[in-house]
């Protein structure tokens, strides 16, 4: 798998880092998110709400299922769950459990360093995720922080009025927003899909010259695609707000809608998430490029005991896989204790945080705060065991 990190002064330029970050945003996150949204919306449309009913019938098993799905190496499983949560198909406890067990791309690095140690950390994360998920359910935290999810019909009548009184949409805008840009997105993801297959199925050290050339050229094209997405996102938001007085958040469906309308909703969701996922991944990768991986190693290695634990927890609050892979590599080099890795694995959520952060920032921050509590508790317990017993995590 390609490396994300380059110390200052290396042969990798700032531009190359930005190109790779953009490519990684598409190949690692957005393809999965797009497919997830599409499958959920289409199946739910033709089944007349069948997905929602099926998930609701799982009842008290939801947090357990969420924890199992989060264990899938990489962020794919949890990213797939995000649309279910944002569409009110699964509970807060379920997504909390999934976020706790998710280790993102760091799981793959961990497996390469020490499969046995990874299994121990995964077991601890899984147990913590299940317990925390059910505590969230028992305490009914969802109704306290997100009453609008429980009472989703609240203020519905006022939202209907706003929808009815929207101004007439120009024909050229309908053509652009409902045909040209959705078609461009489909073509873009079709072009990018082979990159995802190569990324996940073919290790970088066995790439042929042809594959490497294809990936390099594709990175440039993907960056151009992202520029178009961002430009249209900004234009769309500005035009609708200043010339149409329209807010997508006020757009409410009443009853069953057409498949065309369903697919357009998928386009809008993916467009919105694409921009914010790219922004998040690029910001973090550029920050690490500027600081340098070796400098991060040095900074983390300065702390001992509780300081290292707190630094690892802080790294876990940063969305994306980059900080977590640094933690795993430091543990593999003997620079961090097991308590730091366990605490970090509980709090971090790989790339799964980006889609939910883009959809609703309140969701993300509440989930992150909830997950910090077991991260601190379990990490502190393990820190005590490391200092006063013979129990340790070994690589």
Secondary structure elements and pairings:
Layout: H1 14-46, H2 50-57, H3 62-70, H4 76-86, H5 92-101, H6 105-113, H7 115-138, H8 141-145, H9 147-150, H10 156-164, H11 171-201, H12 209-242, H13 259-291, H14 293-302, H15 306-316, H16 322-332, H17 338-347, H18 353-359, H19 361-388
Features:
mainly alpha, 19 helices, disordered N terminus, 395 residues
Number of helices: 19
Helix- and strand-based class? mainly alpha
Unreliable runs, pLDDT <50, ≥5 residues? 1-11, 153-164
Question: Assembly type of the shown chains?
Answer: single chain
- Distance from N terminus to C terminus (CA atoms, Å) equals 21 Å
In which range does the helix fraction lie? over 70%
> Using only CA atoms, what is the Rg?
22 Å
DSSP, total strands: 0
Brief overview:
With 395 residues, the chain is mostly helical. The protein has helices spanning 14-46, 50-57, 62-70, 76-86, 92-101, 105-113, 115-138, 141-145, 147-150, 156-164, 171-201, 209-242, 259-291, 293-302, 306-316, 322-332, 338-347, 353-359, 361-388. It is globular, with a radius of gyration of 22 Å.
How is this structure best described in words?
This protein is mainly α and 395 residues long. The chain has one domain. The protein has 19 helices and no strands. The chain has helices at residues 14-46, 50-57, 62-70, 76-86, 92-101, 105-113, 115-138, 141-145, 147-150, 156-164, 171-201, 209-242, 259-291, 293-302, 306-316, 322-332, 338-347, 353-359, 361-388. It is globular, with a radius of gyration of 22 Å.
